[in-house]
Amino acid sequence: MSDWQNDASRDLMSLGGRLALLTHGEGSHVWDDAGTRYLDFLGGIAVNCLGHAHPVFVDAVSRQAATLAHISNYFASPAQLELAARLKRLAGTGEQGRVFLTNSGTEANETAIKLARLHGTLPVQGRETGRTTILVLDGAFHGRTMGALSLTPKPIYRDPFQPAVPDVRTVQHSIESLEAAFDDTVAAIFIEPIQGEAGVVELPDGFLQRARELATAHDALLILDEVQTGSGRTGEWFAFQRFGVVPDAVTLAKSIGAGFPLGALVTFGTASDLFYPGTHNSTFGGNPLASAVANAVLGHIEDEDLLANVNVRGAELRAGVEGLPLVTGTRGAGLLIGITLSHPVAAAVREAAHSRGLIINAPTEDAIRIAPAYTIGDAEVAEFLDLFGQALGAVASTLTPTETPA
Ligand SMILES: *Cc1c(COP(=O)(O)O)cnc(C)c1O
Protein backbone atom coordinates (compact mmCIF):
# COMPACT_ATOMS: atom_id res chain seq x y z
CA MET A 1 0.00 0.00 0.00
CA SER A 2 1.19 3.50 -0.77
CA ASP A 3 1.39 6.20 1.90
CA TRP A 4 -1.92 7.79 1.09
CA GLN A 5 -3.72 4.44 1.26
CA ASN A 6 -2.21 3.85 4.70
CA ASP A 7 -3.35 7.28 5.81
CA ALA A 8 -6.82 6.68 4.42
CA SER A 9 -7.29 3.35 6.16
CA ARG A 10 -5.91 4.73 9.44
CA ASP A 11 -7.92 7.98 9.49
CA LEU A 12 -11.06 7.62 7.38
CA MET A 13 -14.12 5.52 8.16
CA SER A 14 -13.88 2.19 6.43
CA LEU A 15 -16.71 2.54 3.91
CA GLY A 16 -15.20 1.22 0.70
CA GLY A 17 -12.03 1.53 -1.32
CA ARG A 18 -10.67 4.80 -2.66
CA LEU A 19 -9.47 4.39 -6.22
CA ALA A 20 -6.79 7.06 -6.47
CA LEU A 21 -5.43 10.16 -4.75
CA LEU A 22 -6.61 12.97 -7.01
CA THR A 23 -4.80 16.27 -6.74
CA HIS A 24 -6.23 18.61 -9.39
CA GLY A 25 -8.57 18.87 -12.33
CA GLU A 26 -9.26 20.99 -15.38
CA GLY A 27 -12.25 20.66 -17.68
CA SER A 28 -13.09 16.96 -18.07
CA HIS A 29 -9.72 15.73 -16.80
CA VAL A 30 -8.29 15.03 -13.34
CA TRP A 31 -4.76 14.10 -12.28
CA ASP A 32 -3.54 11.83 -9.48
CA ASP A 33 -0.52 12.24 -7.21
CA ALA A 34 1.66 10.30 -9.66
CA GLY A 35 0.75 12.68 -12.49
CA THR A 36 -1.55 10.20 -14.26
CA ARG A 37 -4.25 11.97 -16.26
CA TYR A 38 -7.81 10.62 -16.31
CA LEU A 39 -10.80 11.47 -18.46
CA ASP A 40 -13.52 12.00 -15.87
CA PHE A 41 -16.83 10.64 -17.19
CA LEU A 42 -18.30 10.12 -13.72
CA GLY A 43 -18.02 13.78 -12.69
CA GLY A 44 -18.05 13.15 -8.94
CA ILE A 45 -21.26 11.09 -9.43
CA ALA A 46 -23.20 13.33 -11.79
CA VAL A 47 -22.16 16.52 -9.98
CA ASN A 48 -19.46 18.34 -11.95
CA CYS A 49 -21.68 19.59 -14.75
CA LEU A 50 -19.14 22.24 -15.79
CA GLY A 51 -16.16 19.94 -15.34
CA HIS A 52 -13.31 20.88 -13.00
CA ALA A 53 -12.06 24.37 -12.15
CA HIS A 54 -14.44 26.06 -14.58
CA PRO A 55 -13.84 29.85 -14.55
CA VAL A 56 -17.54 30.55 -13.89
CA PHE A 57 -17.43 28.32 -10.79
CA VAL A 58 -14.08 29.64 -9.57
CA ASP A 59 -15.16 33.23 -10.03
CA ALA A 60 -18.54 32.76 -8.28
CA VAL A 61 -16.97 31.02 -5.27
CA SER A 62 -14.20 33.62 -4.97
CA ARG A 63 -16.36 36.68 -5.37
CA GLN A 64 -19.13 35.55 -3.01
CA ALA A 65 -16.64 34.25 -0.41
CA ALA A 66 -15.09 37.72 -0.42
CA THR A 67 -18.52 39.39 -0.06
CA LEU A 68 -20.82 37.42 2.26
CA ALA A 69 -20.57 33.66 2.80
CA HIS A 70 -22.96 32.71 5.58
CA ILE A 71 -25.69 34.47 7.54
CA SER A 72 -28.22 31.77 8.70
CA ASN A 73 -31.89 31.69 7.74
CA TYR A 74 -32.70 34.45 10.20
CA PHE A 75 -31.73 36.62 7.24
CA ALA A 76 -32.25 36.67 3.48
CA SER A 77 -29.58 37.41 0.88
CA PRO A 78 -29.87 38.63 -2.72
CA ALA A 79 -28.22 35.41 -3.92
CA GLN A 80 -30.77 33.21 -2.10
CA LEU A 81 -33.74 35.20 -3.41
CA GLU A 82 -32.36 35.08 -6.94
CA LEU A 83 -31.87 31.30 -6.73
CA ALA A 84 -35.38 30.65 -5.41
CA ALA A 85 -36.95 32.74 -8.19
CA ARG A 86 -34.74 31.01 -10.77
CA LEU A 87 -35.69 27.51 -9.61
CA LYS A 88 -39.39 28.39 -9.69
CA ARG A 89 -39.01 29.69 -13.25
CA LEU A 90 -37.00 26.68 -14.47
CA ALA A 91 -39.40 24.21 -12.84
CA GLY A 92 -42.43 26.11 -14.14
CA THR A 93 -44.15 26.31 -10.77
CA GLY A 94 -45.79 29.66 -11.48
CA GLU A 95 -46.46 32.12 -8.69
CA GLN A 96 -47.57 29.43 -6.21
CA GLY A 97 -44.25 27.59 -6.09
CA ARG A 98 -41.92 27.70 -3.09
CA VAL A 99 -38.28 26.71 -2.57
CA PHE A 100 -36.36 25.34 0.42
CA LEU A 101 -32.59 25.11 0.06
CA THR A 102 -30.54 22.31 1.60
CA ASN A 103 -26.93 21.11 1.63
CA SER A 104 -27.36 17.72 -0.04
CA GLY A 105 -29.71 15.38 -1.85
CA THR A 106 -30.62 13.26 1.13
CA GLU A 107 -31.47 16.38 3.09
CA ALA A 108 -33.73 17.63 0.29
CA ASN A 109 -35.51 14.26 0.47
CA GLU A 110 -35.78 14.45 4.28
CA THR A 111 -37.56 17.76 3.76
CA ALA A 112 -39.86 16.12 1.21
CA ILE A 113 -40.67 13.29 3.66
CA LYS A 114 -41.69 15.87 6.25
CA LEU A 115 -43.79 17.57 3.55
CA ALA A 116 -45.54 14.22 2.99
CA ARG A 117 -46.16 13.86 6.73
CA LEU A 118 -47.70 17.33 6.93
CA HIS A 119 -49.85 16.55 3.91
CA GLY A 120 -51.00 13.30 5.53
CA THR A 121 -52.33 15.15 8.56
CA LEU A 122 -54.66 17.32 6.47
CA PRO A 123 -58.31 16.45 6.86
CA VAL A 124 -59.70 15.39 3.49
CA GLN A 125 -63.35 14.70 3.00
CA GLY A 126 -64.11 10.99 3.02
CA ARG A 127 -60.48 10.03 3.65
CA GLU A 128 -58.56 8.91 6.68
CA THR A 129 -56.47 11.61 8.31
CA GLY A 130 -53.12 10.67 9.74
CA ARG A 131 -52.21 9.09 6.42
CA THR A 132 -48.58 8.04 6.74
CA THR A 133 -47.95 5.53 3.94
CA ILE A 134 -45.20 6.45 1.51
CA LEU A 135 -44.83 4.51 -1.73
CA VAL A 136 -41.36 3.99 -3.22
CA LEU A 137 -40.12 2.06 -6.22
CA ASP A 138 -38.17 -1.13 -6.27
CA GLY A 139 -34.53 -0.22 -6.88
CA ALA A 140 -35.01 3.32 -5.56
CA PHE A 141 -32.18 5.34 -4.05
CA HIS A 142 -33.22 8.40 -2.06
CA GLY A 143 -30.23 8.87 0.26
CA ARG A 144 -28.43 7.70 3.39
CA THR A 145 -29.96 9.61 6.32
CA MET A 146 -32.60 7.72 8.31
CA GLY A 147 -35.68 9.06 6.57
CA ALA A 148 -34.34 8.92 3.03
CA LEU A 149 -32.75 5.55 3.83
CA SER A 150 -36.15 4.25 4.88
CA LEU A 151 -37.30 5.05 1.35
CA THR A 152 -34.37 3.10 -0.13
CA PRO A 153 -35.30 -0.60 -0.30
CA LYS A 154 -31.79 -1.98 -1.07
CA PRO A 155 -31.04 -4.43 1.79
CA ILE A 156 -27.29 -3.69 2.19
CA TYR A 157 -28.06 0.01 2.63
CA ARG A 158 -31.08 -0.31 4.91
CA ASP A 159 -31.06 -3.59 6.85
CA PRO A 160 -28.25 -2.81 9.33
CA PHE A 161 -30.22 0.25 10.49
CA GLN A 162 -33.65 -1.21 11.20
CA PRO A 163 -36.11 -0.19 12.49
CA ALA A 164 -36.62 2.22 9.61
CA VAL A 165 -39.29 4.91 9.37
CA PRO A 166 -42.52 2.86 9.22
CA ASP A 167 -45.28 2.66 6.62
CA VAL A 168 -43.07 2.62 3.53
CA ARG A 169 -44.37 0.32 0.79
CA THR A 170 -42.41 -0.82 -2.27
CA VAL A 171 -43.97 -0.74 -5.73
CA GLN A 172 -42.69 -2.86 -8.62
CA HIS A 173 -41.97 -1.38 -12.05
CA SER A 174 -45.38 -2.07 -13.53
CA ILE A 175 -48.58 -0.09 -13.80
CA GLU A 176 -50.50 -3.01 -12.21
CA SER A 177 -48.26 -2.88 -9.14
CA LEU A 178 -48.66 0.91 -8.99
CA GLU A 179 -52.45 0.66 -9.13
CA ALA A 180 -52.52 -2.07 -6.48
CA ALA A 181 -50.34 -0.05 -4.09
CA PHE A 182 -52.52 3.05 -3.90
CA ASP A 183 -55.13 3.25 -1.16
CA ASP A 184 -56.44 6.01 1.07
CA THR A 185 -53.60 5.64 3.62
CA VAL A 186 -51.07 6.92 1.05
CA ALA A 187 -49.65 10.38 1.76
CA ALA A 188 -47.09 10.44 -1.04
CA ILE A 189 -45.28 8.50 -3.71
CA PHE A 190 -41.57 9.16 -4.30
CA ILE A 191 -40.22 8.47 -7.79
CA GLU A 192 -36.91 9.02 -9.57
CA PRO A 193 -37.88 9.70 -13.22
CA ILE A 194 -34.75 7.70 -14.14
CA GLN A 195 -33.16 5.56 -11.42
CA GLY A 196 -29.49 6.50 -11.47
CA GLU A 197 -28.03 4.36 -8.69
CA ALA A 198 -30.00 1.33 -9.90
CA GLY A 199 -27.99 1.48 -13.15
CA VAL A 200 -29.81 4.26 -15.06
CA VAL A 201 -33.13 2.43 -15.21
CA GLU A 202 -36.06 4.01 -17.04
CA LEU A 203 -39.68 3.65 -15.92
CA PRO A 204 -42.21 1.67 -17.98
CA ASP A 205 -44.12 3.72 -20.58
CA GLY A 206 -46.96 5.68 -19.01
CA PHE A 207 -45.84 4.92 -15.44
CA LEU A 208 -45.20 8.51 -14.37
CA GLN A 209 -48.43 9.71 -15.97
CA ARG A 210 -50.41 6.97 -14.18
CA ALA A 211 -48.68 7.81 -10.88
CA ARG A 212 -49.81 11.43 -11.35
CA GLU A 213 -53.42 10.35 -11.96
CA LEU A 214 -53.46 7.98 -8.98
CA ALA A 215 -51.82 10.47 -6.63
CA THR A 216 -54.40 13.07 -7.58
CA ALA A 217 -57.29 10.61 -7.23
CA HIS A 218 -56.09 9.54 -3.75
CA ASP A 219 -55.12 13.04 -2.66
CA ALA A 220 -51.49 11.96 -2.26
CA LEU A 221 -48.41 13.95 -3.23
CA LEU A 222 -46.34 13.03 -6.28
CA ILE A 223 -42.77 13.78 -5.20
CA LEU A 224 -40.06 13.42 -7.81
CA ASP A 225 -36.49 12.82 -6.69
CA GLU A 226 -34.48 14.65 -9.34
CA VAL A 227 -31.34 14.83 -7.25
CA GLN A 228 -29.52 13.05 -10.09
CA THR A 229 -31.75 13.78 -13.12
CA GLY A 230 -32.40 17.48 -12.42
CA SER A 231 -30.42 20.66 -13.13
CA GLY A 232 -30.22 19.84 -16.84
CA ARG A 233 -28.62 16.39 -16.61
CA THR A 234 -31.14 14.75 -18.96
CA GLY A 235 -31.14 17.61 -21.47
CA GLU A 236 -34.19 19.31 -19.92
CA TRP A 237 -33.98 21.36 -16.72
CA PHE A 238 -35.99 18.63 -15.00
CA ALA A 239 -36.57 15.10 -16.27
CA PHE A 240 -40.30 15.41 -15.51
CA GLN A 241 -40.49 17.97 -18.30
CA ARG A 242 -39.73 15.11 -20.72
CA PHE A 243 -42.87 13.27 -19.55
CA GLY A 244 -45.44 16.08 -19.53
CA VAL A 245 -46.19 15.44 -15.84
CA VAL A 246 -46.33 18.12 -13.14
CA PRO A 247 -45.35 16.90 -9.65
CA ASP A 248 -46.34 18.36 -6.28
CA ALA A 249 -42.71 18.59 -5.28
CA VAL A 250 -39.29 17.89 -6.74
CA THR A 251 -35.91 17.51 -5.05
CA LEU A 252 -32.55 18.56 -6.50
CA ALA A 253 -28.86 18.41 -5.60
CA LYS A 254 -25.84 16.92 -7.45
CA SER A 255 -25.32 19.11 -10.57
CA ILE A 256 -27.09 22.19 -9.21
CA GLY A 257 -23.89 23.57 -7.67
CA ALA A 258 -21.37 22.02 -10.12
CA GLY A 259 -19.40 20.73 -7.12
CA PHE A 260 -20.50 23.14 -4.41
CA PRO A 261 -22.68 21.22 -1.88
CA LEU A 262 -26.28 22.34 -2.32
CA GLY A 263 -29.74 20.87 -2.69
CA ALA A 264 -33.31 22.07 -2.99
CA LEU A 265 -36.94 21.16 -2.55
CA VAL A 266 -39.26 22.93 -4.99
CA THR A 267 -43.00 22.72 -4.38
CA PHE A 268 -45.97 23.30 -6.68
CA GLY A 269 -49.52 24.45 -5.96
CA THR A 270 -50.99 23.77 -2.53
CA ALA A 271 -47.99 21.66 -1.46
CA SER A 272 -46.30 25.06 -1.10
CA ASP A 273 -48.52 25.92 1.88
CA LEU A 274 -47.73 22.90 4.10
CA PHE A 275 -44.68 24.06 6.05
CA TYR A 276 -45.11 26.88 8.55
CA PRO A 277 -42.70 28.60 10.96
CA GLY A 278 -41.12 26.15 13.36
CA THR A 279 -41.70 23.00 11.31
CA HIS A 280 -38.40 23.00 9.41
CA ASN A 281 -35.15 24.84 8.81
CA SER A 282 -31.39 24.55 8.35
CA THR A 283 -28.33 26.43 9.56
CA PHE A 284 -26.33 26.23 6.35
CA GLY A 285 -29.13 25.65 3.82
CA GLY A 286 -29.25 28.26 1.07
CA ASN A 287 -26.42 30.37 2.41
CA PRO A 288 -25.21 33.19 0.14
CA LEU A 289 -22.09 31.31 -0.94
CA ALA A 290 -23.91 28.16 -2.09
CA SER A 291 -26.72 30.20 -3.64
CA ALA A 292 -24.37 32.48 -5.58
CA VAL A 293 -22.53 29.48 -7.02
CA ALA A 294 -25.80 27.81 -8.11
CA ASN A 295 -26.95 31.06 -9.73
CA ALA A 296 -23.70 31.35 -11.66
CA VAL A 297 -23.78 27.68 -12.72
CA LEU A 298 -27.43 27.62 -13.80
CA GLY A 299 -27.07 31.04 -15.43
CA HIS A 300 -24.08 29.83 -17.42
CA ILE A 301 -25.92 26.67 -18.56
CA GLU A 302 -28.77 28.90 -19.74
CA ASP A 303 -26.62 31.60 -21.41
CA GLU A 304 -24.51 29.06 -23.28
CA ASP A 305 -27.49 26.82 -24.14
CA LEU A 306 -25.58 23.88 -22.70
CA LEU A 307 -28.74 21.75 -22.57
CA ALA A 308 -28.57 21.53 -26.37
CA ASN A 309 -25.02 20.21 -26.01
CA VAL A 310 -26.20 17.71 -23.38
CA ASN A 311 -28.68 16.27 -25.87
CA VAL A 312 -26.29 16.25 -28.84
CA ARG A 313 -23.36 14.72 -26.94
CA GLY A 314 -25.61 12.20 -25.24
CA ALA A 315 -26.87 10.99 -28.61
CA GLU A 316 -23.30 10.81 -29.97
CA LEU A 317 -22.10 8.77 -27.00
CA ARG A 318 -25.02 6.35 -27.20
CA ALA A 319 -24.54 5.85 -30.95
CA GLY A 320 -20.77 5.53 -30.42
CA VAL A 321 -20.90 2.69 -27.90
CA GLU A 322 -23.26 0.60 -30.03
CA GLY A 323 -21.30 -2.29 -31.49
CA LEU A 324 -18.41 -2.07 -29.00
CA PRO A 325 -17.48 -5.45 -27.45
CA LEU A 326 -19.91 -6.68 -24.73
CA VAL A 327 -22.32 -3.73 -25.18
CA THR A 328 -25.98 -4.79 -25.48
CA GLY A 329 -27.65 -1.38 -25.29
CA THR A 330 -27.99 2.00 -23.61
CA ARG A 331 -30.50 3.62 -21.24
CA GLY A 332 -31.14 7.06 -19.84
CA ALA A 333 -31.42 10.54 -21.30
CA GLY A 334 -29.07 13.42 -22.07
CA LEU A 335 -25.77 12.89 -20.27
CA LEU A 336 -27.05 10.36 -17.74
CA ILE A 337 -26.30 7.15 -19.62
CA GLY A 338 -26.39 3.51 -18.61
CA ILE A 339 -24.55 1.08 -20.87
CA THR A 340 -25.71 -2.51 -20.50
CA LEU A 341 -23.31 -5.42 -20.91
CA SER A 342 -23.86 -8.98 -22.10
CA HIS A 343 -21.98 -10.40 -19.06
CA PRO A 344 -21.83 -9.46 -15.36
CA VAL A 345 -18.39 -7.88 -15.80
CA ALA A 346 -19.11 -4.19 -15.12
CA ALA A 347 -16.61 -4.07 -12.24
CA ALA A 348 -13.85 -5.51 -14.43
CA VAL A 349 -14.68 -3.03 -17.19
CA ARG A 350 -14.53 -0.16 -14.70
CA GLU A 351 -11.09 -1.34 -13.53
CA ALA A 352 -9.82 -1.82 -17.07
CA ALA A 353 -10.99 1.70 -17.88
CA HIS A 354 -9.33 3.12 -14.76
CA SER A 355 -6.00 1.56 -15.66
CA ARG A 356 -6.27 3.23 -19.10
CA GLY A 357 -7.04 6.65 -17.63
CA LEU A 358 -10.84 6.69 -17.84
CA ILE A 359 -13.16 7.20 -14.86
CA ILE A 360 -16.56 5.51 -15.17
CA ASN A 361 -18.80 3.76 -12.68
CA ALA A 362 -20.34 0.28 -12.33
CA PRO A 363 -23.58 0.66 -10.35
CA THR A 364 -24.63 -2.95 -11.03
CA GLU A 365 -22.95 -6.15 -12.20
CA ASP A 366 -23.94 -5.64 -15.82
CA ALA A 367 -24.30 -1.87 -16.25
CA ILE A 368 -21.83 0.99 -16.63
CA ARG A 369 -22.92 4.53 -15.79
CA ILE A 370 -21.46 7.69 -17.27
CA ALA A 371 -22.42 11.24 -16.30
CA PRO A 372 -19.88 13.57 -17.90
CA ALA A 373 -19.81 17.38 -17.85
CA TYR A 374 -22.35 19.30 -19.95
CA THR A 375 -19.39 21.04 -21.56
CA ILE A 376 -17.85 18.02 -23.32
CA GLY A 377 -17.01 18.38 -27.02
CA ASP A 378 -15.78 16.29 -29.93
CA ALA A 379 -12.41 15.64 -28.30
CA GLU A 380 -13.87 14.23 -25.06
CA VAL A 381 -16.40 12.06 -26.91
CA ALA A 382 -13.64 10.64 -29.12
CA GLU A 383 -11.28 10.07 -26.17
CA PHE A 384 -14.04 8.30 -24.23
CA LEU A 385 -15.00 6.00 -27.10
CA ASP A 386 -11.35 5.09 -27.66
CA LEU A 387 -10.55 4.32 -24.01
CA PHE A 388 -13.89 2.64 -23.28
CA GLY A 389 -13.55 0.48 -26.40
CA GLN A 390 -10.06 -0.59 -25.28
CA ALA A 391 -11.34 -1.46 -21.79
CA LEU A 392 -14.25 -3.49 -23.17
CA GLY A 393 -11.96 -5.30 -25.61
CA ALA A 394 -9.53 -6.20 -22.83
CA VAL A 395 -12.28 -7.63 -20.64
CA ALA A 396 -13.96 -9.44 -23.56
CA SER A 397 -10.66 -11.18 -24.37
CA THR A 398 -10.51 -12.66 -20.85
CA LEU A 399 -13.90 -14.36 -21.18
CA THR A 400 -13.82 -18.02 -22.21
CA PRO A 401 -15.10 -18.66 -25.75
CA THR A 402 -18.40 -20.11 -24.52
CA GLU A 403 -18.99 -16.88 -22.60
CA THR A 404 -18.19 -14.69 -25.59
CA PRO A 405 -21.34 -13.55 -27.37
CA ALA A 406 -21.64 -14.53 -31.03
C1 LIG B 1 -27.29 10.92 -4.96
C2 LIG B 1 -28.74 10.79 -4.76
C3 LIG B 1 -29.35 11.07 -3.52
C4 LIG B 1 -28.55 11.42 -2.30
O1 LIG B 1 -27.90 12.65 -2.47
P1 LIG B 1 -26.69 13.03 -1.45
O2 LIG B 1 -26.32 14.42 -1.88
O3 LIG B 1 -25.63 12.01 -1.65
O4 LIG B 1 -27.26 13.00 -0.09
C5 LIG B 1 -30.72 10.98 -3.44
N1 LIG B 1 -31.47 10.64 -4.50
C6 LIG B 1 -30.93 10.37 -5.71
C7 LIG B 1 -31.82 10.02 -6.86
C8 LIG B 1 -29.55 10.42 -5.88
O5 LIG B 1 -29.01 10.13 -7.06
UniProtKB/TrEMBL annotation:
Q: Which domain of life is it from?
A: Bacteria
Q: Which InterPro entries does the UniProt record give?
A: Aminotrans_3 (IPR005814), Class-III_PLP-dep_AT (IPR050103), PyrdxlP-dep_Trfase (IPR015424), PyrdxlP-dep_Trfase_major (IPR015421), PyrdxlP-dep_Trfase_small (IPR015422)
EC number, UniProt record? 2.6.1.11
* Necessary cofactors: pyridoxal 5'-phosphate
Q: Which GO terms describe its molecular function?
A: identical protein binding; N2-acetyl-L-ornithine:2-oxoglutarate 5-aminotransferase activity; pyridoxal phosphate binding
Q: Which UniProt keywords apply?
A: Aminotransferase, Pyridoxal phosphate, Transferase
Q: Name one Pfam family in it.
A: Aminotran_3
Q: Could you confirm whether the keyword Protein transport appears in this record?
A: no
Query: Family, per the entry?
Result: Belongs to the class-III pyridoxal-phosphate-dependent aminotransferase family.
Q: What is the designated name of this protein?
A: Acetylornithine transaminase
Specify the species.
Answer: Microbacterium bovistercoris
